[in-house]
Design brief:
The complex is a heterodimer of chains A (959) and B (409). Chain A has 959 residues and is an alpha+beta fold. The chains are: A alpha+beta (959), B alpha/beta (409).
Chain lengths: 959, 409
């Protein structure tokens, strides 16, 4: 009999029981409990009463002989403990211990739990490293991606079993250096500039269906590439001169009768000529344009040189409907940057204190001078050809009225130059002469055919000649053929660049329907290399050569970074590193940077969490690391608030967003977000915007539960979430306008609310094609219910359940394992959770029927209606631990009835997230004793505080 | 022309020691009998090859293939029929992103790639050479065949003179050297602080674990420092500057650079993304938009031009292979120590289909079978896995691999 196991499940299910870390914590149990747990035989008696009947001898249930196990002085008690704690045991139909008895039994087990030695310390994770350095230096550089992921198969970044490797240290050295160099650049800071543009990079002009000239700017009507991707359109005239923060301001309005806002997706990436193959781009932000009148929409983004800004304008209503009258009108893009928070940047004061700081370079009135750079005046933002930019002009052999030479240079290949055919036919030779009066270096010509006509006059062969006087010509320098059916520009490169005054483009062969001698050209321009004006920079200099000053600077920095008070002896190696550099290079900031780097790469920083000069500082360090992924700020360091107040204040701070992000990534596995790509054939409406907002919903929701101390039962169910226009559409709710996430109540009949029915969770628990009740069931079991799942036995033959299979329904395939006891033992408490979610497809949309993929012919072309047929009806009913349910709301009720287990699991996960280790049995007893029996009384923030309190006791006692 | 330019490579003659060799000699007085390094080259021709011209018409007989019949190294290569990557049904041109990674559905809006096999190999052998790998492409678009362990594209280089400069040109070493000195200053500081903590009775195990890591890191730094000291190989600039056939010259030059890089042991892993852009390209005998022509739809006129372009590419590949084979190394030829994979993400670019991918494995010292036809479609990742295992990587799967099929021996 084939057992059911999916290889892909391997990682999900690999929650092996790990030995616990022995931490000697004096847990004070609530009154009454200790009194009742004085004599060992009393406990023996309790186990005798409630457990031993079934669990003894050779015939013991689940092969667990408790009478034998419990007689040992030390044993692995985890399974027994967890089953007892979560009331899985004794089984519902058996006699139950009361809560005091249960706690006493757990306490007794905890004391006998055998644990093996595990590392006592944890390293800093890469996210904590980068956030901490940013906070220390006053920078905002997201460089965590430069450091390899070292989490391996563990759930939490903080896991103590992860060891620092030389490769990791190498990347810590590299990233520390990079952030220091950007924070305190030796060559100075690039001056802030301003660019204004309403022009797109060339080839986009050919996609005139999607974007066209409109009023003073451009109208983006609709875009969706034929394979389902977004086209984005690159703005010209702005290339970030240096890496840094820039402010992008779009002056935009909604055009046409569109319900809802139009979204401007702002990307950055490398512009590339073959743009129907979308290049890897970063989605920087989404701007929601709701007004018919021009408004300014700004965003602050980080850009690197070579990363151009592009936009994709999206409205669901306009989606793939070719209506060039509707869309987003963007009058212009204005860019300002690179931005500094003050001049000189405020970090100089924070790092160097009162030491005198002066600036060198072009500075006016204490501010970094702003230079306005544009090639065009605000009143004339029209297309300007390269030839015009270098002051050149064109002459043509002849021109037909309405098809004059100016049309070669207007940036469009819909308008064109044509040789004269009325009233008389112009005789060959046909040619265009480009004049270069400023003697600019020209690398070649850029040609584009007239697009959209009958083909008359299209150039097939050409020759190019140079001249200094316009009469005697040298050449042909280049000759060749051109494509007639290609709308894009065809570059013609000269063998070497020329400064010749005259360049003649001679047409030697052209297409003609009726044999007349004609020539036409859509665009003809020169290719020139505009020398980047060298970036003007201003230096910031700390006026000191004094080693004592340097020591003060290093001390202040080290004390903040190490969250410790340090002696002169402690610091002397760090002092010396800086002072040696000062002696060698005579540059104060350079020397300080070496000292800072030593601090940032020190074991006191990288390996120190939990090891500080006092228990009070250790606690603050733990709080800051857990809630902000950083170091304490001055306020926290000086604070004498109560723990609860302190946590409250820290949660309200923006830095707590980092924790929400990390915790969702690690606990709910949202970090695997991009590993799952919904099939475009089955889910054609899944787009970038949805992909962007789904995880944000979950983060906003969890943030709300924690910050507002909402009932922990809202993890399972509530009647609200945080939605916007796109998400409301996805969930088939009433229209919302605008893409700002806001709290929205669900109508009664909607089966949403809580984590399980969120699109993000539903998507991340599938493979993008079909839903898998097993994957989803395992996810709920592990992350929400807190029952660890063991991997399938090595010998079983795997079955891949498929919706497409005609013979058995998916349910039948999965339920086949009921016939196999080995499989059923575990799967009976995994799969049913997943079945309850079968009403949600792989993108989290409601469904009552499955979709089965259909093939497509030849080249895949995106279709709004996808490629699928509807198949069998969804059946979401099931039974978990003897309790039947009809659908997801039934399952939610069952889970709510176990609300203490849900709360207990949440505390355990947060504890593990914070400390990198599972709670000890003793800590679990403490957790259980503090979780309320009444559902509404367990509140999310209280549970976070409980986890943190235990984590803090742990770090406090390690002094 | 071949005989003259290819032999007179080194100013210092063939005796110029390999830089790596020098590294070993430092450690041991007598050089061991030298084992030639194993190298890898992966070429992805992103518009594929016209199948009827590419595949042999008679099983096992390469002379029945229009493109392969003139290859002079036929004895040292194998053509595989019926390889594919699963999950590319709707990928169109995006399939190119997954050629060396096997990651499915590269067209999806939220696609995240995985590591490419060249980078896995480089992670193993990259530290032996000045450049851990060398990704190349024809045009400068920011991505090619190589993707790092985070699925991020490693931007390939496309400017031959820039690449030549990087490989063989003189450079200003003072900045880098200064950086290494500063890092060594930092490491001295950290050693001292660890000693302090040890003396004060700190947590021994924790201190030891960190100390081990910084000692390892110190070795890495000295490796870097060594490469700063090691002079770059001196090589004649043999790049062509023919401008009449710009595209053709580019392919030829990039292959020439790959050969020079291998020959001087500057790197052991190279990828070459043969990318296209809109616009006409010129090769001897044809001018036209490569992409436009690739959608030939069976039109004879278009096919004639397309085949001129593809034949031109094959001509350069043939030169490359035979030149590698003409360079002696370690008892065999450079080709015997270099596994060259030539393939494409498209089986048929006219229809954008990604089944039956063209694929050649050449060199590498394998006993080649010239022509292997799989009875049913076979995951290309099986071959990738085999190449990884042959590079002594400790893995049991790669991408969509099912098994090591033992195709090369």
């Amino acid at each position: 009999m084939a057992a059911l196991a999916i290889p892909r499940l391997g990682q999900w299910l690999m929650l092996r029981f790990q030995p616990f870390i022995p931490i000697f914590v004096l847990v004070s149990l609530p009154g009454g409990l200790l009194r009742s747990s004085t004599r060992a035989d009393e406990h023996q008696q309790l186990f005798q009463t409630f457990c031993i009947d079934c669990h003894q001898g050779a015939e013991a249930e689940s092969n667990l002989d408790l009478s034998e196990l419990l007689s040992q002085s030390e044993f692995d008690a985890e399974v027994v403990f967890e089953n007892l704690a979560t009331q899985k045991m004794p089984p519902a139909e058996a006699k139950q211990p009361n809560s005091k008895e249960r706690l006493a039994m757990l306490d007794w087990l905890a004391k006998r739990h055998a644990s093996s030695q595990s590392p006592q310390f944890r390293r800093m994770s890469r996210h904590e490293f980068v956030h901490s350095i940013n906070d220390l230096l006053g920078t905002e550089l997201d460089l965590a991606d430069r450091i390899p992921e070292d989490r391996g198969t563990y759930d939490f970044d903080s896991d103590r079993r992860i060891k620092l490797s030389p490769q990791m240290l190498g990347s810590y050295f590299g990233v520390a250096q990079e952030i220091l160099d950007r924070a305190l650049p030796e060559q100075g800071f690039a001056r802030e500039q301003r660019w204004v543009t309403n022009k797109l990079m060339d080839s986009h002009k050919t996609y005139n269906i999607y974007v066209r000239d409109y009023k003073d700017g451009l109208l983006f009507s609709w875009t969706r590439a034929n394979n389902g991707n977004s086209y984005s359109f690159f703005y010209d005239n702005f290339d970030p001169p240096v890496s840094g923060w820039y402010e992008l301001t779009f002056e935009a309005a909604k055009v046409g009768d569109l319900a809802g806002d139009v979204s401007i997706q702002v990307h950055s990436g490398k512009y590339y000529y073959a743009d129907d193959r979308p290049q890897p781009q970063r989605l920087l932000d989404v701007l929601s344009v709701g007004s018919d009148s021009l408004q300014k929409y700004s965003t602050r983004v980080f850009l690197n040189p070579g990363e151009n800004v592009s936009v994709h304008c999206f409205s669901d209503e306009n989606f793939r409907k070719k209506d060039p009258q509707k869309g987003a009108y963007i009058r212009q893009l204005e860019v300002r940057g690179p931005l500094q928070d003050a001049w000189p940047p405020s970090r100089y004061r924070a790092l160097f204190g009162e030491l005198p700081v002066r600036t060198e370079g072009d500075v006016s009135e204490g501010k970094l001078a702003v230079e306005i750079q544009r090639s065009q005046s605000t009143n004339d933002l029209r297309y300007i050809s390269n030839l015009r930019r270098i002051g050149g002009t064109t002459t043509v052999s002849s021109a037909q009225a309405g098809m004059e030479k100016e049309r070669l240079q207007d940036g469009s290949n819909l308008t064109f130059w044509h040789t004269r055919f009325k009233p008389t036919l112009a005789e060959p030779p046909h040619y265009v002469i480009l004049e270069n009066p400023t003697k600019h270096e020209i690398e070649g010509l850029s040609y584009a055919a007239w697009s959209g006509g009958n083909g008359n006059g299209l150039v097939q062969q050409y020759e190019i000649y140079f001249s200094e006087d316009g009469t005697s010509w040298v050449g042909p320098i280049v000759s060749g053929e051109l494509e007639t059916r290609l709308a894009n520009e065809q570059p013609i490169r000269f063998p070497r660049s020329t400064k010749s005054r005259f360049i003649k483009f001679l047409i030697t062969e052209s297409f003609s329907i009726d044999g007349r001698s004609l020539a036409s050209i859509g665009k003809l321009d020169v290719m020139v290399n505009f020398e980047e004006a060298s970036i003007s920079r201003s230096k910031v200099i700390v006026d000191s050569r004094d080693a004592e000053h340097l020591k003060q600077v290093i001390r202040r920095f080290a004390e903040r970074a190490f969250v410790s008070e340090l002696t002169e002896a402690d610091l002397s190696p760090y002092y010396d590193a800086a002072i040696n550099t000062l002696n060698a290079h005579d540059d104060f900031v350079q020397a300080a940077k070496v000292g800072f780097k030593a601090v940032l790469c020190s074991h006191r920083f990288l390996m120190a969490p939990g090891e500080h000069s006092s228990a009070a500082l250790a606690q603050k360090a733990t709080l800051a690391r857990t809630l902000w992924l950083s170091i304490p700020d001055d306020d926290l360091r000086a604070s004498e608030r109560s723990l609860a107040d302190q946590i409250d204040r820290m949660l309200q701070d923006d830095r707590a967003e980092r924790m929400l992000h990390s915790f969702c990534d690690q606990w709910l596995n949202l970090r695997s977000w991009n590993r799952v790509s919904p099939s475009l054939k089955l889910y054609p409406r899944y787009d970038d915007l949805l992909d962007y907002y789904l995880p944000l919903e979950t983060k906003a929701y969890l943030g709300h539960l924690i910050r507002e101390n909402m009932p922990a039962s809202h993890l399972i169910d509530s009647d609200y979430s945080f939605l916007n226009q796109r998400l409301a559409k996805h969930y088939e709710l009433d229209d919302l306008q605008g893409q700002q996430l806001r709290k929205v109540s669900f109508p009664g009949e909607v089966q949403r609310g809580g984590l399980l029915t969120m699109g993000s969770i539903l998507k991340v628990t599938t493979d993008g094609f079909d839903t898998s009740p097993i994957l989803r069931g395992a996810w709920i079991s592990k992350n929400i219910v807190g029952t660890p799942v063991s991997p399938p036995p090595a010998s079983v033959k795997a079955i891949e359940p498929e919706h497409g299979s005609e013979s058995d329904s998916l349910r039948e395939q999965i339920e086949s394992h009921k016939n196999n006891e080995t499989c059923y033992a575990c799967h009976k408490s995994i799969d049913p959770y997943g079945f309850a979610l079968e009403n949600f497809d792989a993108t989290g949309q409601w469904r009552s029927q499955y979709r089965v993929e259909k093939p497509h012919q030849g080249t895949f072309t995106f279709r709004r209606q996808g490629y699928y047929r509807l198949a069998g009806k969804v059946d979401a009913a099931g039974e978990i631990n003897g309790q039947p349910f009809l659908d997801v709301s039934g399952l939610k009720e069952i889970l709510q009835s176990k609300h203490r287990n849900i709360a207990y699991n949440f505390v355990k996960k947060f504890f593990q997230y914070a400390t990198g280790s599972k709670p000890t049995m003793q800590q679990r007893v403490e957790m259980l004793s503090r979780i309320h029996r009444t559902q509404g009384e367990n509140r999310t923030k209280d549970l976070v505080v409980l986890a943190l309190t235990l984590a803090l006791e742990q770090s406090g006692f390690r002094q | 022309m071949n005989e003259i330019t290819r032999r007179r490579l080194f100013k210092a003659g063939a005796a110029l020691p390999l830089a790596l060799h020098a590294l070993h000699c430092r450690a041991e007085d007598k050089p061991k009998s030298k084992q030639a390094p194993r190298r890898f080259m992966f070429i992805c021709n992103s518009l594929g090859f016209y199948r009827p011209n590419f595949l042999p018409k008679t099983r096992g007989d390469l002379s029945t293939s229009r493109y392969l019949k003139d290859l002079s190294t036929q004895e040292k290569l194998t053509v595989f029929e019926n390889f594919f990557h699963p999950g590319m049904e709707t990928s169109n041109h995006d399939s190119e992103k997954s050629f060396l990674t096997g990651a499915p559905k590269p067209e999806a809006p939220n696609f995240a790639n995985s590591i490419s096999l060249d980078q896995l190999i480089a992670s193993k052998v990259g530290r032996e050479t000045r450049f851990s790998s060398l990704p190349l492409s024809i045009y400068d678009r920011g991505w090619g065949c190589s993707w790092n362990d985070r699925g991020v594209a490693i931007p390939p280089m496309s400017d031959p003179s820039q690449i030549f400069d990087m490989l063989f040109g003189a450079e200003d070493l003072s900045v880098k050297r200064n950086q290494i000195r500063e890092d060594q200053e930092v490491l001295r500081c950290l050693h001292r602080d660890l000693q302090q903590l040890k003396d004060a009775g700190g947590d021994g195990a924790k201190i030891a674990s960190y100390e081990n890591v910084i000692v390892e890191f110190e070795k890495q730094l000295s490796h870097q420092e060594f490469w700063l000291n090691a002079k770059k190989p001196e090589v004649d600039n043999t790049l062509s500057n023919d401008v009449e056939f710009e595209f053709s010259t580019k392919v030829k030059n990039l292959l020439e650079l790959a050969k020079l890089a291998f020959q001087t042991d500057s790197t052991r892993v190279i990828t070459f993304s043969m990318d296209w852009i809109y616009g006409a390209i010129r090769v001897p005998g044809a001018t036209g938009g490569w992409h436009t022509l690739s959608h030939h739809g069976g039109n004879q006129e278009k096919l004639a031009k397309l085949c001129q372009i593809e034949s031109n590419i094959m001509l350069h590949l043939n030169d490359f292979l035979s030149e590698l084979d003409s360079i002696e190394e370690g008892g065999g030829s450079l080709l015997d120590n270099t596994t060259v994979v030539i393939g494409s993400n498209f089986g048929d670019s006219s229809n954008h289909t990604c089944n039956n991918l063209p694929l050649i494995v050449a060199g590498g010292g394998f006993r080649h079978q010239q022509h292997v036809i799989f009875p049913k479609p076979t995951h290309l990742c099986n071959l990738w896995l085999e190449l990884l295992l042959r590079s002594n990587l400790d893995i049991d799967s790669f991408g969509s691999s099912e098994a090591n099929m033992g195709l090369l021996s």
